[in-house]
Write a structure and sequence with these properties.
Blueprint: H1 12-26, E1 34-39, H2 43-55, E2 61-66, H3 68-77, H4 88-99, E3 103-108, H5 120-142, E4 148-152, H6 156-162, H7 168-182, H8 190-211, E5 215-220, E6 223-229, E7 240-241, E8 247-248, E9 257-259, E10 261-271, E11 276-278, E12 281-283, E13 287-291, E14 294-299, H9 304-311, E15 320-325, H10 331-335, H11 342-345, E16 351-355, H12 364-367, H13 370-375, E17 384-388, E18 395-399, E19 405-410, E20 413-414
Parallel strand pairs: 1-2, 1-3, 3-4
Antiparallel strand pairs: 5-6, 5-18, 6-10, 7-8, 9-15, 10-13, 11-12, 13-14, 15-16, 16-17, 18-19, 19-20
Helix pairs in contact: 1-2, 4-5, 6-7
Bound molecules: zinc ion (2 copies).
Length: 418
């Protein structure tokens, strides 16, 4: 059997995914270098992407592959000291590459439960060491200094987590279909459809920016929350221009418009509407209360230890770095599938993220100046963790600088037609 014959879905979809990723997601330029990270299981897609990249005139394409058994070997046999260290040299090299205009592609296919059976304290220590080591590289991405993109591949363990009742073959097939349809690449003209979708996201973005709301008021079951927005914040969504001048679309799929909340101006309580998978642990039933931007009370019905440890990461991990609006009618939400993967689940519902803000979600003069981002209320942290607070019962009002109240969402949907 050839490798393609062993796939449990139409291999042609991988050709389309590779083309969409290089031409639309990354918009890779002639002679531009590219770094790809992926699991070994995604090789059928990685190989196609590398071919597509070179056909598009890529410079040097470098692939960094990870493997589940290799990751687990550390937990089984690694010494204690190894849980406090990560390969700094590698991330420094990546940061240097991004500085020199290298594009970045991540293929997500990971088993969301990979680390669920491991000691949470070790998981947290290693996670922290990785966050510290990867900061130079991650900053370049969150500051949008180069064009980047994330796409997915239907990994078998991931598929079984999403569809536990199916055989592995059936689960992979179903997850593959869900990925291709959520990514809007299963139609006749995927790139054309994606362009139209992104132009709608741009219209939403403009509508929100024209109001320049001071804060958003969320109400719903278990939720009454005021999120103050950062001074000089800007809403973003869909394709946009990275600081290297290349227009790219970082997430495939994407349904959100999002901006930066003010790190000190969040008050009230909020209840998550979907589970969160954080470092291989399932966290359910998150309920938190904010005071002056900071989480002062937190509990969950499952995975509480890991959630509380995450909040302890650093000074910024109890504060918000992102607020995003996604209608309940989004295709991912309508699929009713819980993906256990942030790229998908965050595009199914309105969400907030604890931790690092995106400096690109500010007016241009602020976004280029680190100090100005901080002064305007942009949060900074080693983590950026999205979790879902949207549902068909969520209402959101915008409060203008003059104190006027503008309904934005009713029962999980945009009020205003565009
Ligand atoms: Zn988001
Ligand atoms: Zn986010």
């Amino acid at each position: 059997m050839t490798q393609d014959e062993r796939l449990h879905f139409d291999p042609k979809m991988l050709d389309i995914m590779a083309e969409v990723c290089i031409k639309f997601g990354l918009n890779l330029q002639n002679k531009q270098d590219l770094i790809i990270t992926s699991t070994v299981e995604s090789l059928p897609l990685v190989r196609r992407i590398v071919e597509e990249a070179y056909r598009a005139g890529a410079g040097v394409v470098t692939t960094l592959l990870s493997d589940e058994e290799i990751s687990l070997a550390k937990y089984r046999y690694g010494n204690e000291e190894s849980f406090d260290r990560a390969p700094e040299w590698m991330f420094k090299g990546m940061a240097e590459a991004f500085e020199n205009n290298t594009a970045r592609l991540a293929i997500s296919a990971d088993n969301p439960m990979l680390l669920s059976g491991q000691n949470p304290e070790r998981v947290s220590r290693l996670g922290k060491a990785m966050s510290i080591a990867s900061k130079p590289a991650m900053e370049k991405i969150t500051n949008f200094e180069t064009n980047w993109n994330i796409v997915s591949y239907p990994g078998s363990k991931w598929a079984k987590q999403v569809f536990p009742e199916l055989s592995e073959e059936g689960a992979v097939k179903k997850l593959a279909e869900a990925i291709f349809s959520a990514s809007r690449i299963n139609g006749k003209d995927p790139i054309g459809e994606l362009r139209a979708h992104h132009s709608n996201l741009k219209k939403r973005q403009k509508w929100l920016n024209d109001y320049s709301f001071k804060s958003l008021h969320y109400t719903g079951p278990g939720t009454d929350l005021i999120i103050g927005l950062a001074d000089g914040h800007a809403w973003k969504g869909g394709a946009s221009m990275a600081k290297n001048g290349i227009i790219c679309s970082p997430n495939i799929p994407t349904e959100e418009v999002f901006t930066t909340p003010h790190a000190d101006r969040v008050d009230g309580y909020v209840k998550a509407t979907k589970p969160l998978v954080y470092r291989g642990t399932l966290i359910e039933g998150i309920e938190v209360r904010f005071e002056k931007g900071k989480i002062v009370e937190a509990r969950t019905s499952l995975g509480e230890e890991v959630f509380l440890q995450m909040l302890e990461t650093d000074d910024g991990s109890r504060r918000l770095g992102e607020v995003a609006l996604v209608p309940h009618s989004s295709p991912i939400s309508q699929s009713g599938i819980l993906f256990y993967n942030t790229l998908y689940d965050e595009n199914a519902a309105c969400h907030i993220a604890l931790g690092q803000c995106y400096s690109k979600c500010f007016t241009e003069e602020i976004s280029l100046d680190k100090e100005a981002v901080k002064k305007s209320g942009g949060n900074s942290s080693m983590i950026h963790v999205d979790w879902m607070i949207g549902s068909g019962e969520l209402n959101i009002d915008g409060i203008t600088p003059d104190g006027d109240i503008v309904p934005i969402f009713r029962n999980g949907e945009w009020v205003e037609e565009i």
